[in-house]
Amino acid sequence: MDLHSGLPYWIVKNKLFDYFNPLRAPYTVDVAIIGSGITGSLVAHELCEAGIPCAVFDKRTIATGSTAASTSQLQYEIDTPLCKMVDTVGMDMAVKAYHASLQSITDIEKVFDITRVRPDFRRVSSIFLASDRGGLRLLEREYQIRKKQDLPVDFLDADALFADHRIDGHGALKNSEAAQMDCYKAATGLLKYHLKKSGLTLFSHTDIVDYGEKPNGYELLTRDGIRISCKYVVIAAGFEAGRFLPRQVMNLISTYALVSQPVEPSLLWPERSLIWETASPYFYMRTTLDNRMMIGGEDVSFRNPERRDRLLRWKIKRLEKKFKEIYPEIPFAVDMAWCGTFSSTADGLPYIGLWPGRKRMFFALGYGGNGITFSMIAAQLIKNKLKGIKDDRDNVFGFKRTGRI
């Protein structure tokens, strides 16, 4: 399936990692990682750093699936507000999820410091706008629970929002713990680093179509009939992980994004914050290092790639209109536009770990708007499990958390 269409900015901005290495003979490895995007690359990094032999497999050119279409925002806030999440998974689990997401941003930053990969990572503030009066009431509740649980947050009333950020709105929550980066550059950079430093093996254009469980691991089968023997499998293939899941655990969503032509830096909004809103689906915006504006949203339920793509022109106009409602004085001329498909879950949390009853197949499914921070958590959890290290986050992000699996 086509995971995106149009012209994703990262593929234009960066030189394509044109790596061609299809699997041509039977292969044996301790850990087979399926998926070469940001999730697979972070898993590979953690395993390589821990000295665990692994190999990465992808049916496409490296990191050209959902990662190429990501707008690459890192926030500790999860799509489901904390004040609502507690009603679904309970206070303890919801708070742990939020704190884990907060820590994940710092952990991602440390990965780039260690590897010297430079994916345009930059710390920025996050502005969570009230879309209407109902949204303002939600933010008031959210502010109280975050403060009580020692999460970084400030409340901006309408006057402060306009004075500090030039936005004429009802109010907002603000924190300074967010970040942004180039997701494609990060994924390819980490894989290149470990190809050279750790002897990581990377197979492109290798489509794994079937698998069989063995007493000591798994046997995977490629579309070309080649077999891969491994002790463990890590599924880091996003919503395409469906063929490995006993049943569907996610909802498929079509989303849309635009990037503007460059503007003078003085025209951009204060602090170049990540900005998003309480409406559902929500609109969001960020800047790039070359002084462009990247905006997105207008999510709809995914039916098929053709329907998703047909809506692109109309969604461009809708997104432009929403941007103008927030910053009417900033010129926004569309340079590139694209649409993609991602997944969400009922409680807003990802699914990470072993499916109940399977001892050697791990899932790293960072579903939702915070896929990158969830990917870091998944990489750490899987490494810890393989090393025999207890991790309290298992219960928060695992398949058993809802009691329905």
TrEMBL record:
One of its GO terms (cellular component) is cytoplasm. It comes from the Bacteria. Residues 30-382 form the FAD dependent oxidoreductase domain. Gene3D superfamilies: D-Amino Acid Oxidase, subunit A, domain 2 (3.30.9.10), FAD/NAD(P)-binding domain (3.50.50.60). InterPro entries: FAD-dep_OxRdtase (IPR006076), FAD/NAD-bd_sf (IPR036188). PANTHER family: PUTATIBE OXIDOREDUCTASE, SARCOSINE DEHYDROGENASE-RELATED. This is Glycine/D-amino acid oxidase.
